[in-house]
Amino acid sequence: FNDSESALNFIKDCNLNQIEIPLIFCDQVMPVMRGDEFLEIVHRIIPNTRKIMLTGLASAESIGNALNKANLYRYIAKPWQNNDIILTTKEALRSFYADKTLEEKNKELEKSFFYNSDTNLANWEKLQQRFEEYSIKGLTLTLAILKIENYAYFIEYFGAKIYKKILLELIQIISSKLIEEEEMFHTQLDEFLILSTLPFSEKFI
Q1: Whether pTM exceeds 0.85
Q2: Residue 11 and residue 40 in contact, taking contact as beta carbons nearer than 8 Å
Q3: Are 21 and 46 in contact (CB under 8 A)?
Q4: Residue 164 contacts by C-beta under 8 Å, 6 or more apart in sequence?
């Protein structure tokens, strides 16, 4: 891009459409906006993107700003060596995708620990985490307990597959009635909890 405004508009559009930008090269000396200022804005929009500054005149202060405020991956002095550019690009891309893979694995691990695998609802561990979060905020909580009676007999006569199908339909119906301040948890096979930050409601009775 020939100017920072066009580049920022492009970055914002990509971010809005969930298009990844793994790597950005930026000169320090540009019209209207310095490179470290530009990268600081970029970092607020797409913090995981690797950012490399090309510079021949940058001060230690400018480089420090880019390092501290934009998480600068590396700066390369002019005139640069082509092999250095190629190697830095490969390393930056490898770093970006390694972090992305790690983040995805962490999300999978969190999901397996905090969510029920059958219903995808938050489980008991997640409920405890919510209690701690709301306790810090000093919120008063309302807890509704929904228990399915004789589920074992239902599974015995109709099978686990039918039970799960009906269960998922029930969850969908209840979830459609919840508002932003309410969250549903699957704490046991036959037990569900609804946590609310609002006063007690009789809407499920």
Answers
A1: no
A2: no
A3: yes
A4: 118
